[in-house]
């Protein structure tokens, strides 16, 4: 999450919405966001999102039409993700 927060302005430059999603409770999300000083939303998943997109540490790029354009498993490579966000402009 720190990687996204550290570069949040670069994502926002592309009008990209960063979301953190997990099955942790709202209270856990609030404490986590406060601890890391996150400025993007954290979403509590009841299992529905995990059922659609999979579980584990993953990053999905979804365009404005709702189409998944890129998936990255593991720790995020911010430079690669920003390049993929820029590539979304062509869709």
**Number of helical runs?**
5
**What proportion of the residues is helical, as a percent range?**
40-55%
CATH superfamily: Glutaredoxin
The overall average pLDDT, rounded, is 94
Low-confidence stretches: none
Overall 3D geometry? globular
Tally of distinct domains: 1
Q: Which structural class do the helices and strands define? A: alpha+beta
Tell me the strand percentage band: 15-25%
How do the strands of the widest beta sheet line up side by side?
1-2
Could you characterize what this model shows?
42% of the residues lie in helices and 19% in strands. The protein has a single domain (2-81), classed as Glutaredoxin (3-Layer(aba) Sandwich), CATH 3.40.30. A two-stranded parallel ribbon has the order 1-2. The protein contains 5 helices and 4 strands. The protein starts with a helix and ends with a helix.
Please provide a brief summary of the model:
The protein is of the alpha+beta class. It is 42% helix and 19% strand.
Considering the chains and any ligands shown, give keywords for the structure.
single chain, 91 residues, alpha+beta, Glutaredoxin, two-stranded parallel sheet, two-stranded antiparallel sheet, 4 strands, 19% strand, globular
């Amino acid at each position: 999450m720190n990687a996204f927060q550290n570069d949040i302005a670069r994502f926002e430059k592309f009008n990209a919405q960063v979301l953190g999603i997990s099955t942790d409770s709202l209270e856990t999300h609030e404490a986590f966001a406060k601890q890391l000083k996150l400025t993007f939303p954290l979403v509590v998943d009841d299992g529905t999102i995990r059922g659609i997109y999979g579980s584990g540490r993953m990053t999905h790029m979804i365009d404005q039409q709702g189409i998944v354009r890129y998936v990255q498993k593991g720790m995020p490579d911010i430079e690669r993700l920003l390049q993929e966000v820029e590539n979304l402009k062509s869709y």
